[in-house]
Amino acid sequence: MSAVAGNQVVIFALGDDRFAVDVGQVREVLRTPPLTRLPGAPEYVRGVANLRGEVVPVVDLRVKLGEPEGDHEDTRVVVCELEGEVIGIEVDEVQEVATLDPEQIHPAPRRWVEQSQQAVTGIARLDEELILVVDLARLLKTDLEISLEALRQAREEAGEAVTAAEGDQQA
Amino acid sequence: MSHEERALFVSESQEYLQILNNGLLQLEQGTDPEVVAELFRAAHSLKGMAATLGEQGVVGLTHAMEEFLSRVRETGEQLAAEDLDLLLAACDGLEAWLAAVQKGDEATMAQAQEGLETLEASVRAGFQRLLGREQTAASQVETAAPGQTSAGDLPLELNLYDQELIQEATRQGLQATDLFIRLDPGCRMKSVRVFLIFRALEQVGEIIKSQPPAEELDEERFDDRFRLLVVSSEPPEALAERVRGLAEVAEVVARPVTAGEAGAGSNGAAGPGQAAAPREPAARKNGGPGLPKELASIRDNFLNERFLRVDVSRLDQLVNLVGELVIQRNRLLSVAEETGFSSDVIEGIDRIATDLQTGVMALRMVPLRTIFQRFPRMVRDLARSLGKQVELALDGEETELDRSLIHSLADPLIHLLRNAIDHGIEPPDERARKGKPPTGRVAVTARQEGNRVVIEVEDDGAGVDVTAIRRKLVERGLLSAKEVEELSDRQALQWIFRPGFSTAKQVSDISGRGVGMDVVRSAVEGAGGSLQIDSELGQGTKIRLELPLTLAIIQAMLVELAGERLALPLDVISEVLRVGDADIRTLGGGRVLNWRGQILPVIDAAERLQLRPAQEVLPPDSLALVLERGGRSVCCLVDEVVGHEEVVIKPVSKLVSTLPEVSGATVLGSGRVAVIINPEPWLEG
Fold first, then answer.
1. Mind listing the domains of chain B with CATH numbers?
2. Which residues are within 8 A (CB) of B108 and not within 5 positions of it... i.e. 6 or more apart?
3. pTM for this structure?
4. Which CATH superfamily, name and number, covers A27-94?
5. Which residue is closest to B562 within chain A, CA to CA?
6. Which residues 6+ apart lie within 8 Å of B564 measured at CB?
7. Domain A8-25+97-170 falls in which CATH fold?
8. Fewest CB atoms less than 10 Å from the CB: which of A50, B282, B390, B429?
9. Residue B407 is a catalytic residue
10. pLDDT tens digits, one per residue of B537-558
11. What is the ipTM metric for this complex?
12. Mutate which of B667, B668, B677, B682 to disrupt the A interface (most A C-beta within 10 Å)?
């Protein structure tokens, strides 16, 4: 499971939304390389790139999450491995690698874990902001249809639960 | 056994088994002493390898086979079908055991082990039968070995091979001695005694034969007596003295043996092959003095190994690295061109990279023999079980193909062969009625044509009924009656490669379940190949497979389509025309090209590949490529041709689905990725 005690996470942004992903899932982060269109590939696949001689497909995470395509300006690609294959995920920005203390991470509501087929794994409090911790590999599964809107809702609900729990602790 | 030892053992054993299988089939045509000798050697080598690994089941069975073969070698007799079946069954048993070893699964191995024991017993029984047949033959005269004493119950049997060894020894001024040795009745550790006796004799000579065989002595599978045939510079009596000097030896009788004396047990019944045993003086010189030829040849094989067994994964690693090198070379060349930098260093790197690539790719080439050699046995068994007579002709086994392709080719070819025998070749009586020779003929031929390998499977059987195909197409609602009418015979025939389409009247075990031909097709196309069928009712069927020589690196033409650069296999392009100069017309809603009197369908590549919508008007400066493969042609439109490059084929991620036209991708000299197009779907129309 990602986001266990003292885990390092990579924080990336898609527009105003921030997400955290376990650093173990990320092979590297690159400026989006030149892409070649792949005939017949799903719409959210922007194309294939040359990654040091390897041909790697790059997925537009916005489109995968049901959002309209962005302008692709100054975007980054988070390279990760999925079922033994390398895949790149285009995001707007990669902000930092943060080390989370165990008390910063909380489990996500079960409903969302299930609905996202475990793509949503937890929620973390970072700089007074609540961020969803996601499993990128699961988020990219072809049969998973989850929208950015739904992820925002998941974050809200998880955030409320976390705030309530923290309130209990302090009381 | 370590993993590596096991792999080596399995692969070598498979080679010997293949020799056994093929040789036994040859014996069906008559006993050829050379073939028998080869078989004997194969069984013997197998036994030797198994013995070093302590695989007693294999040792037992191969030993029984050896005895059998050794007998045949002496007598030169024709083997009955039951004998051959028995020996073939033994091969199957060994194969099953090998498969179990390969799997490393204990339970399967134990089962196979049991199988080996059963087989050993039946081969031994068969051997007794063989001896029985001989003894009843009136011409056989029993002659006792001269000079026997209490050894009468254990006559020394000299086969042709032993005699050759003795002859060789005599030529070198050595003496062959037959030593009969009896141990003390109360001797407890017989194998230790045997070991000491062997060691004493081996200090002064070579033991070329032991009776019972050394393994049995070693396992104490004898009562108290045995015979040794020793080649030494010492006279018989001196050797006897050496043995008598050892503890727990009760009796030693020594007598000189000459090659001329017909081996005691062989009854002097020299078969035709025996009298005319060919001499190979050059090969004979290999061994050191007194070293038996066989041992010498085994030793020489180790010393002068011309072939090296290499783990395939190491080879693949090299191929990948060379692929990287080729890409970097291409980049270097493109940078040099852009900057106008020219140097002999770049030329040198270019040349070396090309040579290295050719060399490494050649390492992956495997002759088709590796699959072809399985066919004779398969065809024989299949023909027998179907009550058909089939003659198999193989040609071009030496043709080489990339090993990854060889792998994907084996199953389709076997399937095609089965089909030819099951559905193609008629039973003998039916053939006779049709005025054909009762024995059907199936030919598998292979040859290299340019960058591709062509394999044809041809039979002179019943052929495919095109009318039946047409009828079926309509019946199944696959095509309308009108569409079927418009099909040429050739186009109609191609339908048998479509999924779920089979014209076999009855479903048999072997083929014709409606799966099969489409499986063949997808396997061949998956390997970048194509498949054609030609058939004439009553005359036979010919299926032609075309495959690229290698999957890893191809010559490609780079084209531009809607701003994208794509690669097309160069060998499929037969002409490049300017659209403005080409005779392209609109016909029935589509475009066609009139090319050298042929009307070819025109494919708008960019549209097909979903790169842009169809073009209403074709720019006269764009290009029309004529693509040809296996007698089919099509015209494809591209915006521009930007050159050609040697490209390394890389798979496109399994995570992403693509059009069937995408056969892979490559990294160009510029560093950009180009998709490689497989034009096969277009050629099919």
1. 3-136 (1.20.120.160), 150-303 (3.30.70.1110), 312-364 (1.10.287), 367-548 (3.30.565.10), 553-683 (2.40.50.180)
2. B99, B100
3. 0.55
4. CheA-289, Domain 4 (2.40.50.180)
5. A37
6. A36, A37, B611, B674, B675
7. SH3 type barrels. (2.30.30)
8. B282
9. no
10. 889 999 999 888 776 778 899 9
11. 0.85
12. B667
